[in-house]
Design a protein that fits this description.
313 residues; mainly alpha; Rossmann fold; 4 domains; 3-stranded parallel beta sheet; 3-stranded antiparallel beta sheet; 8 strands
């Protein structure tokens, strides 16, 4: 696998040696047991996978190389480059400026950008709309692109799945495809929703052939539209008579309850002479209804199931 030129401040010889040892022992990365560092009285367990991943190291290399090679130029990041405060703060200290915060709030107006500015695409990717805005400013949006290749792979897979079914994800997470943005670009890549670009929704649902539904489990926004979409997919229309569905066991339970209630009515006609039989029929009717509501034991259910089988032959 490709190796990256990451600043030494983000590397540890000890950690690198541990990760290399585990890689040699488990090249397929199927063993998730932690690594044990045994120092006698002190024992330390390290997670099997930790530290910077391929996509993060790729983003760090591109970002710091861009800063080193463009001294004196204004350099911007759309938002935080990765989920690591130290790296983002180090870039800020090197003079890099963020155009947006992690909630999608604009920190620097688009109108302040110039054609000779450098804009770095973070590892989460960006939207087609933002790419168009940068191009309108004379900035080539993909010249300094740190989008994780594995994120792009997720977008490509999501596009294939969206053609057959619905997709749901957190809009606040930077790698979630965003409706119309989850479509192939000229080179077959995708443009995902930049982190925080839809702060009013915490869920994005993309459904084949229709406009995306923006849904918020927090505020309830969009849930009515989702219900309507699901009913439309199921073929239901307002005013249509709903079919009555029941399991065979439920139907037999209702019939049994009716028979016991009819028998109880006969006993009730005899006044106080057969109150014990009247009460028993009511109990049996109640028991039959419990078979539908679930107010019976698992032994009762097993007895009901196995009563229909011949066992022991």
């Amino acid at each position: 696998m490709k190796t990256f030129n990451v600043p030494i401040i983000y590397r540890s010889p000890l950690i690198s040696a541990i990760k290399q040892k585990r890689k040699q022992q488990d090249r397929m990365k199927k063993d998730f047991t932690p690594t044990l560092l045994d120092f006698g009285p002190l024992r330390i367990q390290l997670a099997r996978h930790f530290g910077f991943c391929y996509g993060v190291e790729n983003a760090i290399e591109i970002a710091f190389k861009t800063v080193d090679e463009n001294e004196g130029k204004r350099i911007f990041l759309l938002s935080e480059m990765i989920h690591n405060p130290q790296v983002n703060n180090d870039l800020l200290a090197r003079g890099v400026q963020f155009l947006m915060d992690t909630s999608g709030r604009q920190l620097i107006p688009w109108n302040d950008l110039r054609a000779d500015d450098i804009v770095i695409i973070p590892a989460f990717g960006t939207t087609l709309e933002i790419e168009a805005q940068l191009q309108a400013k004379g900035i080539t949006p993909l010249q300094y692109n740190t989008t994780c290749p594995f994120v792009e792979r997720v977008w490509n897979k999501a596009d294939l799945l969206a053609r057959e079914t619905g997709l749901v994800g957190e809009a606040e997470h930077g790698v979630v495809p965003a409706g119309g943005n989850a479509v192939p670009g000229e080179s077959g890549r995708h443009a995902g929703r930049e982190k925080g670009s839809s702060p009013s929704s915490d869920v994005v649902a993309v459904e084949r052939g229709d406009a995306p539904l923006l849904i918020s489990a927090h505020t309830g926004a969009g849930l009515d539209a989702l219900r309507a979409r699901l009913l439309a997919i199921a073929g239901w229309t307002p005013g249509m008579e709903s079919p009555w569905l029941a399991r065979e066991r439920h139907v037999r339970a209702l019939e049994a309850a009716r028979e016991h209630l009819q028998a109880a009515a006969v006993h009730a006609a005899h006044s106080d002479q057969v109150l014990d039989l009247f009460a028993e029929e009511l109990r049996l009717a109640h028991e039959a209804l419990c078979g539908i509501t679930g107010e019976f034991t698992s032994d009762d259910l097993l007895g009901e199931i196995f009563s229909r089988f011949c066992i022991g032959k």
